[in-house]
Amino acid sequence: MPALPDGETPPDSGALPPTAALGAGGRDLGVYLHVPFCRVRCGYCDFNTYTNAELGGGANAASYADTALREVELAAGVLADPHLAAAGMPAREISTVFVGGGTPTMLPATDLVRMLDGVRTTWGLVPGAEVTTEANPDSVDPASLATLAAGGFTRVSFGMQSAVPSVLATLDRTHDPARLPDVVGWARQEGLDVSVDLIYGTPGESLTDWRASLDAAVALEPDHVSAYALVVEPGTKMGAQVRRGELPLPDDDDAARKYELAEEVLTAAGYRWYEVSNFARVDAGTPGDAPSGDDGVPRHGPRHASRHNLSYWRGQDWWGIGPGAHSHVGGVRWWNVKHPRTYAFRLEQGLSPAAGREVLDGATRELERVMLGVRLADGLELAPGTGAVPEHLRGAVADLIGQGLIEFAPARAGRVVLTLRGRLLADAVVRALTP
Q1: In this structure, what DSSP letter does residue 157 have?
Q2: Residue 102: which H helix or E strand, with range?
Q3: Is the CB of residue 259 less than 8 Å from the CB of residue 424?
Q4: Residue 50 pairs with which residues in a beta bridge?
Q5: What's the confidence (pLDDT) of residue 302?
Q6: Using N-to-C axis directions, what is the helix angle for 61-79 and 340-348, rounded to 10°?
Q7: Pick from 186, 298, 275: which is nearest to 224 by CA?
Q8: Which of the four pLDDT bands, split at 50, 70 and 90, describes residue 288?
Q9: For residues 102 and 322, what is the distance between their CA atoms, to the nearest angstrom?
Q10: Which of 23, 30, 40, 216 could form a disulfide with 163 if both were Cys (CB 3.0 to 4.6 A apart)?
Q11: What is the pLDDT at residue 74?
Q12: In sequence order, which residues have a C-beta less than 8 Å from that of residue 103 and are 6 or more positions away?
């Protein structure tokens, strides 16, 4: 698992500086709830996850909901601090809740609902709030999905990864791909939106394998598909296998071909990209699912997009609950201690679980705005509110157009929208725009 970043030591109270309140009235507030438990740890995964057998005390699955709710209470106190209020921090209801992991649905559905109830009681939810949980296909049944839907969840994101058993085995995934139609059907019966996550570039995965996974995903008719290129992290089991020569390192050209195939298959099936790795189903005649506007900016609707993830890419505010969770409020970013036992102990002592934080300066915030905004289909405004290309970027923008990396019409109006080739080389576009 990756080490936590360096940063300044946060106060034990978790208090935020007054600068975090600046402009807060114009930003959404979301909540991320991290559930750090998995039945087994997949060989490619470097997330902050644990098997329940590794843990005890206030850190295990049985007591986790109570522990997480302690941080919800602490967060409410921090955001309601009179010093922040005096600096302009408004009381805000929660726009999106995302329960991730790990495998959140290893906890009883009643525990997930109880955590959501804690968020709802503490802050309130905006009308139509998006509430998502991740789930493995083998960790839900009709009863648990019914409990989640009745408790206020609106969306479930299934970790499909692949439809090919040999690829799943290489990834150490334990679910039966034949179960996906059942779990999607159960979720649909409860009125839940459905997303499926796919991974391409697994060692040994052929283009035919990847096509089979895409076709299987499309056949499920989900509302949303995420397609992520496998990244082999050095501290993982798979990283060690690659280092020892037991598995080949994923190839960049192979990954590019597979991304292009994903674009082809998903577009033909009625999905459109709204972020480089994410595709949402287009509903004909639905407001917000319209095609591109006169300025060439794609507008295929955030209706089925992950609004929670969009809040990250658009620099909104969110509080991350759980061990290792990261948060961001008004240019202040912090991260919690990683181990569940340490996390639980600090909260039991009435202390913030934050391990470190940083206050982003203007240059860093602008760099992140470019890095994240470039990845979105509605594009990046180079000089927000002006409709123009800043003089110092005109040469770079002209070069990017010439290389076929960004669309011509939006660029004339000061907005960077990636072409398909640009999506494959998004990092190069960011480098060109941040000299």
Answers
A1: E
A2: none
A3: yes
A4: 37
A5: 61
A6: 50
A7: 275
A8: low
A9: 11
A10: 216
A11: 98
A12: 35, 37, 38, 39, 49, 134, 135, 136, 139, 159
Report the alpha-carbon distance of residue 192 to residue 356 in Å, rounded: 36
Of residues 138, 126, 139, 150, the one with CA closest to residue 31 = 126
Encoded amino acid at 317, one letter: D
Burial class (CB in 10 A: 0-12, 13-18, 19+), 435: exposed
Cβ contact 397:374 at 8 Å: no
Q: Measured on CA atoms in the order 356, 359, 364, 365, is the torsion positive or negative?
A: positive
- Distance between CA 95 and CA 302 in Å, rounded? 14
- φ/ψ region of 373 (left if φ > 0, alpha if ψ in -120 to 50, else beta) reads alpha
Read off the pLDDT of each residue in 391-395 and give the average, rounded to a whole number. 96
Mean pLDDT along residues 40-59 = 59
Whether residue 277 has pLDDT greater than 50: yes
Residue tagged 């009125």 (tokens): 191
Q: Which alpha helices (DSSP H) does 2-87 contain, by range? A: 61-79, 82-86
pLDDT digits (tens, 9 = 90+) for 340-363: 999 999 999 999 999 999 999 999
Q: Supply angle C-alpha 61, 319, 272, rounded to 5.
A: 95
Question: To 10 degrees, the CA torsion angle through 269, 270, 274, 276?
Answer: 10
Alpha-helical segments (H) within 384-425:
394-402, 408-412, 420-424
Nearest alpha-carbon partner for 247 in 200, 202, 209: 202
Contacts of 118 (CB under 8 A, 6+ apart): 68, 69, 72, 73
**CATH number attached to the domain at 363-433:** 1.10.10
- Look-up of token digits 């969009």: 310
Q: What pLDDT is stored for residue 37 in this prediction?
A: 86
3-state SS assignment for residue 335: strand
- The CATH fold assigned to 18-360 is pyruvate-formate lyase- activating enzyme (3.80.30)
pTM exceeds 0.85: yes
Q: Give SS3 for 74.
A: helix
Residues 6 or more apart in contact with residue 350 via CB below 8 angstroms: none
Domain residue ranges in the chain: 18-360, 363-433
DSSP-derived pairing of the beta strands 380-381 and 193-200: unpaired
Would you call 227 helix, strand, or coil by DSSP?
strand
Task: Quote the distance between the C-alpha of residue 314 and its chain's center.
Answer: 12
pLDDT, the chain, mean: 91
